[in-house]
Structures are given as structure tokens and as C-alpha cells.
Amino acid sequence: LLSVKCSQIWCFLQILAVCHLLFALSLLAGDYGNENVQLVKSISDLQLPKAAILGNHDCWHTHQFSEKKADRVRLQLERYGVNDMAGSAKKIYDAAAGAPEGNSVVLLAHNGPTGLGSRMDDICGRDWVPGAGDHGDPDLERAVSDLQRETGVSIPLVVFGHMHKSLAYGRGLRKMIAFGANDTIYLNGAVVPRVRYAQASPSYEQNRPEGSVLVAPTSRAFTIVDLSEGRVEKISEVWVLVSGARTELEEETILYKHPREHM
């Protein structure tokens, strides 16, 4: 399972990096650019197992709205029949509750739920205002709570982005995982920027095919989850080096590893 929050152009190098990881499923949590239609189409065309949703940067930047009309956010919510937080929570609930019996559910959202902390470095904590605060979505918290209380659906993982790992004004780094009731793990994949640029090595410049365009090597960030039999086994943040047609794992930071029972 691969969780990706894209904030850079989805190009050939990115595809190479993704394929290198040999994942079972790619989750894309939104913010692909400021209404970058071509980029979103490229993601849609990828012949890979994937699930994708939109983020706030994908939805309402270019369209001009009259003050006499419904505001831009409300217009989109009404399109999908969402009138309030309770209605939104019910839509999430109904979708997850409809999963086939015996299957676990992984929830994908752009932002995480409320209830996971109100410090600025918490997984959904406000880092841009004095006093911090909880910036999670209450509808997602309610949906998860209702599902766990009223159904037998197992939710081992909730994946989202939106809240950048690097805190505003150089205040440090955000906690990227949190633990909830019923062994649910909340995972934030918003490592931003997701691309690091480097200079091409002398050997690569000498050996590249004649007529090819020299593209500087890049390192690209992914969050990888090993999920087995409905349980999260391991979560890692990785950087994959892409140089020409060559890809390799450059760096891995383990965020979580399931404690093994003593034999």
C-alpha cells in the first residue's frame, strides 16, 4: 500500500519512482496543483491500482463566483448532497458500512479527523496561528466513531494529507501518525516538498544516450504501509532516487512497526 500526497507535477520521473516500489495500491490524497487539469488527467490515465480524491487546491481557485450566488465551497457540497457535518459523516459511514463482510476498510481523506490533538505539532494541529488548535474534520471523526460503535467493520488505517509535515515558520516537524480506538492508525502523508533536486553525476552525463535530454536526478518522497490480514505491520517514509532510467531506495525512516508477540 502506498500513500501519496502530490504537490508537484506528475511526470515520467514520478511514475518511475512509483513503479520502483512494487506496491499493491496507491492512495493519492489530493492537492495535485492549483486546478491542474492535465496533471489530474495524467493520474487518471495511469494503469496502476489506485484511489484518488481531490484537495482544496484542486477545486475552487479559478472559477469566478458572484457574491449573489452560493459561496464556492457550498456550491460543491450541494452538488454531492452534503448540507452539514452530520450529512457528510453519514455519507462516509454509509460508504464504509457497505464493505463486504469480513473485509477491513481503509479510509482515504484529504484532511484528518478532529480528536487527535490540539498542539501545533499534532497530526492535525494548527501551526500557523498563535495558540495552535485542532484543525481536523469533525465529520470524519464522527463517521469513524459511529462505525466502530455500531458496526463490525474493522478500520485499521485512515490515510490523509493536507497538514504539512514541516511546521510553519520553521517551528519543527509534525507528528505523522496517531493511534485511536480499536487499533486504528491515523497516517498523514503530507511530506512537502515531495521532490528534492540534485545535480547529475559525471558518470551519468558521460553515459547517457546521444540526443537524450539531460534531466537532473531527483529524490521523491513516499509513505509506504505494509498491511497484512487487516493489520498494519509497518509504516515508512522513504525517498526514492530517480536518475535517468535508474531508481533506487535512497532513505527510509520507519514511523511504526507492529510489536510482535513473544514466541
UniProtKB/TrEMBL annotation:
The record's listing under InterPro entries reads: Calcineurin-like_PHP, DevT-like, Metallo-depent_PP-like
Instruction: Name the SUPFAM superfamilies on file.
Output: Metallo-dependent phosphatases (SSF56300)
In Pfam terms, one family for this protein is Metallophos
Molecular function GO terms recorded: hydrolase activity
Q: Where is the Calcineurin-like phosphoesterase domain?
A: 27-165
Q: Which PANTHER family match?
A: CALCINEURIN-LIKE METALLO-PHOSPHOESTERASE SUPERFAMILY PROTEIN
State the name under which the record lists this protein. Answer: Calcineurin-like phosphoesterase domain-containing protein
Q: Which organism is it from?
A: Dichanthelium oligosanthes
